Structures are given as C-alpha cells and as structure tokens.
Amino acid sequence: MSQMQNVERQLREMILGLEIGPGERLTERWIEGRFGASRTPVRAALLRLETEGLVGRDGRGWTVAPINLAELGQIAVYREAVEVAAVRLTAALEDRSGIDVIAAMLDSCDAETPREEWHRVGMDFHIELARLAGNEFLLRAVRDAMTRLSRARWLEVRDEKALGRAWAEHHAILAAVRAGHADEAARLLSGHIAGSRERLVTSLHDDRRGLRARGFAVVAA
Amino acid sequence: MSQMQNVERQLREMILGLEIGPGERLTERWIEGRFGASRTPVRAALLRLETEGLVGRDGRGWTVAPINLAELGQIAVYREAVEVAAVRLTAALEDRSGIDVIAAMLDSCDAETPREEWHRVGMDFHIELARLAGNEFLLRAVRDAMTRLSRARWLEVRDEKALGRAWAEHHAILAAVRAGHADEAARLLSGHIAGSRERLVTSLHDDRRGLRARGFAVVAA
DNA sequence: GATACCAATTTGGGATACCAAGATGGTATT
DNA sequence: AATACCATCTTGGTATCCCAAATTGGTATC
C-alpha cells in the first residue's frame, strides 16, 4: 500500500467519521505530521479527495467540505435519477438472484446491531442494489452520492422507528425487483429517497444550531 | 494560471483532440519535458485526469484510456438517466427562457460551419440543456459523460444527413421542453440518446480495424 | 485608543534529488 | 544458436528544499 493511498484512506475515514469537523481548515503540513508522510503523497491524497467533494479549496488552503443543505437536496435528486435507472435495468434482467444476497445483508441487522452497522448497511443497500444493474457509471454515481451523504446521515437524528421504516422500505423495493415489477420498484425507490431526503434535511435544518455549536459548518439551503 | 492547471488543460486537449492516441503510454518524464513543467504539477494533473477517466494506470506507468465500446454503451445508459431527469426538471420550471439561448446556439451552425464547431455545439447542447435544471450534480454528470464520449464522437463517421438529423432532434427536444411537455421531451431525448449510441457503437465497431491501424487501442464490447 | 505599516512566519506551488522495483539488453555459458 | 544471468537504465514513489504570496502580530504614529 503506497503512502498516497494510506493518507487518502485515513483522511477520508477521519472526515467521514467526523473526526475532522465539516468546515475545518486543513494544512498540508498538519496532515504530513499527523500521518507521518511527506507532502508529496499528502498533496496527491488531497487532490483525490477534492474530486470526491470531501475537501475543497478555500482560496489559499484546504477546508473540509461543510454540510450543505442545498447540496444534500440536489444529491437526492441526482441519486434518485441514477438509482431508479439502475433498478429498472435490474428488474429487467433474467438473473436477479443477486437480490437475495442484499436481502440477507438487510436481515443481518436487528435490534442488537450497533448504530455503525446500521449506518453502513443502509448505504451498502443502495450501492449493492445499483451494482446489480451491471453499469459501472450508475454504480459509481450511487457510490459517490452515498459517500457525500454519509456525514449528514451520521448527524441526522434517527429513532428506532425511522430505522425500522427504512428497513421495511428496502425490503419492499427488493420484493418488487425480484418480481420483475420495474414500475413498482421505481415508484417505491423514488418515494424512499424522497422521504429520506425530507427527513434528513428537516432534521439537520432543525438542529443546525446544535451542529454549529459542535463546530460544524452548516450551509443553509 | 498555475502550472498544474496548464498541464492538465493542455494534456486534456491533446488527449481529447486525439493528438495522443487512445491506449498510448505516457511517462511523467515525457510530459515534464513536453510542457516544460516539473514532475510535481505533472503528477497532480495526471491524478486529476485519472478521475476523469482520460488516463489510467497500467500497472507501473500511465496510459491514455483506450476507446472502450462496452464503456460507451454504459455511458449512454448513464447519461440517458441523468439527462432525462434534468430535462424533466427543466420542463417543470416556470422560467424556461434559457431554452432560447440554446436554440440560438444550434442555429449558429449551418452548412459552412467547420466540423470542429459542429462537434463542440453537439456536446454543448446537452451540457447547457442539463444546466437549466439547476442541479450541480446532474450537470456534472452530463459534462463528465460528454467528455468521455468526446473522442469517440471524433472517430465516428458522420455524414451530412446524420448531422442534420441530430440538429432536428435537438430542436424537437427544445420545443417540447419549451412547451412544458415533460413526458414528450423525455421520450424524444431518450430516443435521441439511444439512436446516437447505436450509430456511434456501430460505426466504431465496423471501423475498429481502421482505428487500430491508426494506432488507437479499441476494446471490444 | 485606533490605525497604518512593516517584518516575520506560515502556506501552498514548484523543482529536484534519491530510491526501490521492474524492464531491457548484452554477455557468457552450454 | 539458445538460454540463463547480470549490469544498467528507466520509471513511478517519496522526501526535501526553495520561493512567492498571504496572513499575522507587533509597533510606531497620529
């Protein structure tokens, strides 16, 4: 594993895990010292993370991307387009057995499962569902979108009921795809994503003072 | 303008303009000498172009992305999803006056217009149409897709009739959007993209021997 | 006390030197 | 002549040094 990949991976995990807060300033020298790498791989890693939208340039200097409510809304529209397209393709496939693996993944979560795991499975559901379509570009689009949503989903206040509803909606979507009902799967998925966006943006908007108090930059919609 | 941006822009133009052939090997030292920059900005530029899919890693070393017929088909599916989503959003807007600017752009092309201009306008049509939706992610997706299709479109054998048909289809799409007919616009756009893909892949497939003879790596579908 | 200005420090951009691993080509041995 | 082997060169990865610009902090002046 090269130093660049090391720095990229660790820095991404720190950002996505909110160990470095949204809006925080980064200096190449700090990262250099933090990970024990020299500036060359550090700069390479920053360039890659920039294309993922996790860090940005603030004139001179680097900043961890803030939580942007308007952007979250746009991402929801974007992922709806690509996820619906993917699920329609999958519903038209002859071999849809990949569905079962995803269903098993969902079922591996229960009341005892830690929140980290729910979080991961909630993202992987959409990514793996998109993978079944067999289109690299749709898959990458979904993966990128979920990455960008990841931090916001950590900050969202979610109760047991919300988790259960998402779980049920996921299963309903899988059932429609398994049955080859493309239109119904698309309708369910659209509704799921729209509701998901609604709750996410509302939750963050209501809590934006609390988030700012924690030092997280939140850009209004 | 920083050196990195210089190298990135020039290298991208050389790749998209087929001055460097698909599949060709690149060494950091050659680029360094070619553009009079040192390896630091060269490496930064390569890292960025890699995320655009224009260059890739070939184990040790860099290669210009080959023409990949399977990939072209997947891109068409991807862009259909995002372009249709964008055009539906635009058709639902109150202010759709941006349409007229795009129509004027189309009309600036006639029989006297050089091929480079047709090529550029053909791509910009889709990009500008997507921009009207006001969604950064849909716009970027379309822009990226068009960038990846750019070289293949240069290689495609297109006659006057094909150009005229595309021109007419573009205008028909605009008319539907202007009238606010989302479903019809979506249908026309889908058909346009599907036909476009069909002709593109067929043309390149039929001509793949000629392309390989010119030193261009072509990966079959 | 406010402000204008200057020096010192910090920061990212760029250039270069070094290294390890892999490709290459020549040579010696059979 | 074929092949095994070794020296050499090439290449990307990394570390480090230099530089210009911008920020910062203090100081002197009004």
From TrEMBL, chains A, B:
Gene3D superfamilies: GntR ligand-binding domain-like, Winged helix-like DNA-binding domain superfamily/Winged helix DNA-binding domain. Residues 1-67 form the HTH gntR-type domain. The keyword Transcription applies. InterPro entries: GntR_C (IPR011711), TF_FadR/GntR_C (IPR008920), Tscrpt_reg_HTH_GntR (IPR000524), WH-like_DNA-bd_sf (IPR036388), WH_DNA-bd_sf (IPR036390). The keyword Transcription applies. Keywords: DNA-binding, Transcription, Transcription regulation. SUPFAM superfamilies: GntR ligand-binding domain-like, Winged helix' DNA-binding domain. PANTHER family: GNTR FAMILY REGULATORY PROTEIN, TRANSCRIPTIONAL REGULATOR, GNTR FAMILY. This is GntR family transcriptional regulator. It comes from Mesorhizobium montanum.
